[in-house]
Write a structure and sequence with these properties.
Length: 948
């Protein structure tokens, strides 16, 4: 190839005048082109000799650039076709730059020497170009955790040296390509050891041709796709396999009987499909450790015998299956057994746990038909028999008839030192040194164990991490693992913090080094962990919202964009760490003991209007918490709709086991607080339930759903400009009441469009006080708390200082106002609404020149009276400095004056009585506040007059 011609072209096109001293001129020009295309390139990228001057992230050999590794440095921009000019490039790694967007240019196919192409955790989209199949030297291809769409290019089949293929966590569709005549396919990848395709939208059947005895695959991971048809028996030919994941697809048919030929297989996930036929017979699979066959349609069967005789089983999950009969006692004595989850089946007879594995941590047999339990008194770990006959009647008080007991979970602790309080924003390392750690989540996709408390595993993982960092001479003081958790994909999530040893923060080259260790699986964890994905903690929204003032301060102290992120995130998570340590204590007492249930027909005398519901009643009125009655879900648990005995429709918010606030005392505090606030723009608490380990709040039912849902147009209700003003004034009044009239005052802490509900007449009602904080009466105008809230709505000042004031709610409300105007989410495609509006705003123009951003729904109506004042108010609410923001009552006044401008009477009831609205209440007589417990017509709000 003629380099000089290309160099000339580049010189012309890019007008690069500097001539390299040592580095090849084409490479210099191409690097300068990348530098121009990206923001946040390393600060030492200056001069004309990248190789000679040691540009961060660039490695050279014989004056040619052979490696570009720029992971986790906050690069912003697109990957341009200029990448093709690095003709000697072997490694291209741009992982963990959330702001890298656009597609991969087809010209990448020119990089014929490329061995590593690693673009993990960016925001690349579009199709993966076919030319990728020209990269004949490629051994490591990791494009996971982006937004790639379209089909998997069949040309990948030509990558005959490929060792690692990871396309997981994208939006890939279409079939799994296999070879056909001259068309290549994945079946040709006979040197590939890792197939990671989970979390996409792949469809079609699994081609039998995909697997053959020539292959050396160890991991075959296709979980969470839309694959149909049956599992081909050719899978049984790939003897090297250690982990198979086909769970969470639409697979049907019987499981091939030769699966037990796979004698190296340790992990098998087939759950959540439509598999039929006999339960697989896994006899003879001598290293099988983790098996999940849940939620399929296998034939009814007794507990299979292989389960009791397998010597290696650590984890058996068979929930929602048809297994029946008594549980053979031998099952528990599998020597490695840690977890047994067999809920929602038909097991019966007498449960007898006498001989059991010393490692056994959890036996979950909820909702079976077990009649008796022979308590031998030696098994003390978690056992759940809730929903079995043995838990009815007198048995119901036994500890195994409750759920929500806590299991121990590992977290790195300080050794041989006393943790010191650190300056705000820094964290204490396990060696008790204060610094800004690098933070992120490790996702282990196919571990062969399930015990979250076994410190020997996790200490070994810490050791492997430290060893890998040491090998590369990275200045790491220590690592900390915490927040261990099985996520909804059955991945083991571990929160990782890496602490610097030399300074109080890592420099860019070290961050790149650490990221590489994590992307290329250099760590050799104890073998049962298996491969992982890593994603650094990312709070783009918070960074974005820190514009102007506070950002300037931080940038002064930090070296680059990524460090800004570190500062902010450590602040957030320091508080979390502190709490975690205290969280272990679980209070078994009933804090409600002092409330006498028998009095006042179940009403609690101390709490005006709040009822005590029995778990049975709530279970009954939600059809056993059936999916049909589910109307919402979130981190806290689920929300159901039901009609209680009085005939009132209610929304029942049931805390998920594990998400609970810990002690019932906090729950009680929350109820007491909720029972004290009464306003027509706040959702009213009807009652609660605290029994059988459940924490349930019962609210009035608000029929028209969330503001967010209505803005997205899903509900079919047209929110025109007038109605939006009504919603704004209503929710502002609710918040003003909480801040200024409630006694003691309440800060909501999680104001957002999903927490504003609309009733029959589109009156706004603020909901979800789960995070609320009472203002103490201690003279301070703020409370110091752990940072909670929702990204995108969070007040940057609160985030920085942890000092919560009413103004934090004002900030969040400003975001909601911007949503009302634009109908877009606060963070969309990596951009933050405040910045988008601020940048687009031109006060000299009509509607401030925001036409492009305004929700077309309101734009199509008549003129937007008062629009500019509304925007001014919203932007005032999201002022950087809390002191510059208005109070909620000032906000109310201002919206009222805008309404008057728009010809609305701010004190009239909602406009939705006008015939245009046809909501669910049509045809039924509207009875305002018909329920006796949520009656605002009395003491609280004398001004409300509702037509009957
Ligand atoms: C890249 O490939 C295209 C066609 O495959 C070719 O025209 C072009 O010259 C190549 N560029 C370089 C720098 O080799
Ligand atoms: C691929 O990248 C890894 C990590 O930087 C490196 O160790 C390895 O040598 C690279 N492979 C080649 C062929 O450059
Ligand atoms: C694999 O399984 C099939 C069916 O169970 C059996 O006939 C065959 O002999 C097995 N092959 C090997 C190599 O074990
Ligand atoms: C399971 O397979 C083993 C050996 O392949 C066999 O001995 C046993 O009878 C089978 N069990 C059932 C229930 O089919
Ligand atoms: C347990 O279930 C099996 C199968 O449904 C049934 O045959 C058996 O009688 C039941 N045993 C008891 C004690 O109810």
């Amino acid at each position: 190839m003629d380099h000089s011609i290309h160099a000339c072209l580049l010189l012309v096109i890019l007008q690069i005048t500097s001539i390299a001293a040592v580095t090849n001129t084409v490479d210099v020009s191409a690097l300068n082109a990348l530098k121009h295309a990206w923001q946040n390139t390393p600060t030492n990228w200056v001069g004309s000799d990248p190789c000679g001057d040691g540009w961060v992230g660039i490695n050279c050999s014989d004056s040619r650039v052979i490696s570009i590794t720029l992971s986790s440095i906050g690069l912003n921009g697109q990957l341009s076709g200029d990448i093709q000019y690095f003709s000697e490039l072997q490694t291209l790694d741009l992982s963990y730059n959330k702001d890298l967007t656009g597609s991969i240019p087809p010209a990448i196919g020119n990089l014929t020497k490329l061995a590593n192409l690693t673009l993990i955790g960016c925001s690349f989209s579009g199709q993966i170009p076919d030319t990728i199949g020209s990269l004949q030297e490629l051994t490591f291809l990791a494009l996971n955790s982006n937004s790639f769409s379209g089909k998997i290019p069949s040309s990948i089949g030509n990558l005959s040296k490929l060792y690692w293929l990871d396309l997981a966590d994208n939006k890939l569709t279409g079939p799994i390509p296999v070879s056909n005549g001259s068309t290549p396919g994945l079946d040709m990848l006979v040197k590939t050891v890792h197939f990671h395709f989970g979390m996409n939208q792949l469809s079609g059947t699994i081609p039998p041709q995909l697997f053959s005895s020539n292959m050396v695959l160890i991991h075959s991971l296709f979980d969470s796709n839309q694959l149909t048809g049956s599992i081909p028996s050719t899978l049984g030919l790939v003897k090297t396999l250690k982990a198979i994941r086909f769970d969470r697809n639409l697979l049907s048919g019987t499981v091939p009987s030769n699966l037990n030929n796979l004698t190296n297989l340790s992990v098998l996930h087939l759950s959540n499909n439509h598999l039929t036929g006999p339960m697989p017979n896994l006899t003879g699979m001598n290293v099988l450790s983790y098996v999940d066959l849940s939620n399929n349609s296998f034939d009814a069967t007794d507990v299979p015998s292989w389960i009791s005789t397998s010597g290696s089983l650590t984890t058996l999950v068979m929930e929602d299956t048809q297994i029946q009969g008594a549980i053979p006692p031998a099952l528990f004595s599998n020597p490695q057994l840690q977890t047994l989850r067999l809920k929602n089946s038909r097991l019966n007879g007498t449960l007898n746990i006498t001989d059991f594995s010393v490692q056994l941590q959890l036996i979950d047999l909820q909702n079976n038909s077990i009649q008796n339990f022979v308590e031998s008194g030696v098994y003390h770990n978690e056992l759940i028999l809730l929903g079995n006959p043995v838990c009815e009647g007198t048995g119901a008080t036994a500890s195994y008839c409750k759920s929500g007991q806590s299991m121990s979970s590992y977290s790195t602790s300080s050794v041989n030192c006393v943790p010191v309080p650190c300056p705000s924003g820094q964290s204490t390392s396990p060696n008790c040194k204060c610094s800004y750690p690098l933070m992120g989540t490790l996702f282990f996709i196919s571990p062969s164990f399930s015990d979250l408390g076994n410190s020997s595993y996790y200490e070994a993982l810490e050791g492997s991490l430290m060893k890998s960092f040491g090998t590369l001479q990275l200045p790491v003081d220590s690592v900390s693992l915490s927040k261990l958790n099985w996520d909804s994909n059955d991945y083991l999530e571990i929160w990782l913090e890496v602490f610097p040893s030399a300074d109080d923060r890592f420099n860019q080259s070290v961050i790149i080094g650490i990221s590489s260790v994590l992307s290329y699986q250099f760590i050799e964890p104890p073998p049962h962990f298996g491969p992982h994905h890593y994603l650094p903690y990312c709070s783009d929204s918070s960074v974005n919202s820190m514009s102007s003032v506070s950002l300037g301060i931080i940038i002064g102290a930090a070296i680059g964009g990524f460090l800004v992120l570190l500062v902010l995130t450590s602040a957030g998570f320091y508080a979390y760490r502190q709490r975690r340590r205290a969280d272990r204590v679980i209070n078994q007492n009933n804090p409600f003991a002092s409330w006498d249930r028998s009095q006042s027909r179940g009403r609690i005398p101390q709490l005006k209007g709040v009822r005590w519901f029995s778990f049975e009643e709530l279970k009954k009125c939600t059809g056993g918490f059936s999916e049909d009655s589910e109307i919402g879900a979130g981190g806290f648990g689920k929300v159901y709709r039901g009609t209680v005995a009085s005939g009132q429709q209610v929304a029942i918010k049931r805390a998920q086991q594990g998400s609970m606030q810990g002690s019932g005392h906090e729950f009680k505090t929350e109820i007491e607080m909720l029972s004290r606030v009464h306003h027509k723009n706040l959702v009213c608490l009807v009652g609660f339930c605290f029994e059988q380990g459940e924490q349930i709040l019962v609210y009035e039912y608000i029929p028209n759903g969330t503001l967010m849902g209505n803005l997205s147009g899903k509900s079919g209700i047209l929110l025109d400009w007038m109605r939006r003003l009504q919603v704004a004034v209503g929710s502002a009044r609710g918040l003003a009441y909480l801040h200024e009239l409630a006694d003691p005052p309440v800060i909501h802490r999680d104001v957002k469009s999903t927490n504003i509900l609309l009733d029959e007449r589109l009156n706004a009602k603020v909901s979800d006080f789960g995070l609320s904080k009472l203002m103490n009466d201690n003279g301070k105008s703020y409370v110091t708390t752990q940072v909670k809230g929702t990204l995108g709505y969070m007040d940057p000042e609160y985030f920085m200082t942890h000092q919560l004031t009413e103004k934090s709610d004002v900030y969040s409300f400003g975001i909601v106002m911007l949503e009302l105007i634009t109908a877009r989410k606060p963070i969309e495609r990596g951009t933050y609404i405040v910045r988008v509006v601020r940048v687009a705003m031109d006060k000299t123009r009509d509607l401030y020149g925001l036409h492009e951003l305004i929700d077309p729904v309101i734009l199509s109506g008549k003129t937007l009276e008062g629009f500019e004042k509304f925007v001014d108010l919203a932007m005032n609410c999201v002022q950087e400095l809390a002191a510059n923001r208005p109070t909620m009552s000032e906000v109310v006044k201002e919206i009222e004056s805008i309404m008057e401008l728009a010809g609305l009477n701010p004190n009239a009831e909602s406009t939705s009585t006008s015939g245009t609205y046809e909501g669910p209440s049509k045809g039924t007589l509207y009875r305002p506040y018909s329920n006796e417990f949520c009656d605002y017509s009395g003491d609280y709000l004398p001004s409300i007059v509702q037509p009957h």
